[in-house]
Amino acid sequence: MIEGVPVDVGLANEGERIRKEEMHLEFGGPKVESKWEIVRVMPPDSVEDGVVRIVGPDIRELAGGGSYPLGILVEVAGPQLEEDFEGIIERRIHEYSNYVEGLMHLNQRYDIWVRLSKRGFKAGFDSLEYLGLVLLHLFKNELPIIEAMQVTFYTEPSAVAERLPDVLARYEARDARARGLTDEEVDTFYGCALCQSFAPRHICIITPERYANCGAISWFDGRAAARMDPKGPIFALEKGECLDPVNGEFVGVNATAKERSMGEVDRVRLYSAFGYPHTSCGCFEGIAFYIPEVEGFGIVHRGFRDPTVNGLAFSTMADSTAGGRQVDGFHGVSLEYLKSRKFLAADGGWDRVVWVPSEILDRLKPFLPEGVAERTATERDVTGVDDLREFLRARDHPVVARWTEEPSGRALVTAENLPLEVGGYRVILKNARIYADRVIVLREEPAHGEGRR
What we know:
- By secondary structure, the chain is of the alpha+beta class.
- Among the domains are: 11-177, Bifunctional carbon monoxide dehydrogenase/acetyl-coa synthase(codh/acs), Chain M, domain 3, CATH 3.30.1650.10; 185-281, Carbon monoxide dehydrogenase alpha subunit. Chain D, domain 4 (Ribonuclease HI, Chain A, 3-Layer(aba) Sandwich), CATH 3.40.970.20.
- It has helices at residues 86-97, 118-122, 128-142, 157-178, 219-228, 251-260, 314-321, 358-364, 372-375, 385-394; strands at 23-28, 35-41, 52-55, 67-68, 70-77, 103-106, 113-117, 148-154, 188-192, 204-206, 234-238, 242-244, 249-250, 286-291, 296-301, 330-333, 353-355, 411-422, 425-436.
- The strands form six sheets. The chain has a four-stranded mixed sheet with strand order 4-1-7-6. The protein has a four-stranded mixed sheet with strand order 2-5-8-3, with helices on both faces.
- Helix 1 (86-97) crosses helix 3 (128-142).
């Protein structure tokens, strides 16, 4: 227990999921437009150590069942602190918030989602001041280089919205510093285990050209974190021998994945969504998903609330992608990774991308190769796969050259390794491409006197 906080605080509460029916209220999330959290390293004389402020209505003043805007500003000071540490300290808001019994914190930066359970509210957690006290206690105990810290929660809608542009500009300034360095130029990558409470088999592999899935940690952030807290959840790893430069498979990455996943994951390809794709946690900013009917990829971000071009919503695909699994054709990604030359490089990169929400495509235009934006469909252009096929053909999208046989609405499955269970045997089809008008699965009952076949 932390003095003054009415609920338990500790590692045992990490990974707690609060479903809608268990929720008292929530801050941020998909129903709320403005939400953010940010850490700033400040001069010592501008930080009132131990102070928690709430600008706007507190939890006890908000109606139960609602969704509300939220901004979290954490200001820290100390002679050993550097601006490069901001993103690392910021990402720990997620970790430490999840230590609170009855509180769930998801995502990061401008995508935060915080839920308070009915049980937590009934126990007396009726003020954001309690969360502030938890953050103050844990940050200063876990990171002694923080000598002074103050926390401000913004819940007044206008105050959250007014500060959002400046917050976004600061995120972009951090990201811009990390661009330019290549994976080939370094011998050390970084791993992040912050999301293992929600995805036990997952480790984010962070390279100069592959941001953490959450979008909050660059290679430079990883380096700063490992230096600031050598025993913390973000650590250095030797990338080792490159086994496959096209798919991005490295000896050191495989060894780390195997060790940290307790043997569940022993191979990782950093630049492909097939074979042994990078695992996905649950805090990813977006999903790159395979659309077999056109042999291309769609990309959807967490803020897109409509069904995608294949009829599935982000939430549906996220349930199938998250949890630390390696799922062929479904790949959790950060939006910064979409700007990288290594983005799905083994699968064709942006020459393979066929559909992106207009909001994201507009944001990415300055970073995309020439002609990509014009030939990529959005929700404004197509409403389904049939429309998408015609759009791609009309725009002479590079993916059309892959259509060796006209799909004509038939189901298509392609995979480097396609496992099937047949009669108790596991059959793996290598480099399979299968077209079918229908797939019928029947259970074969054994004849009388025979064993099951």
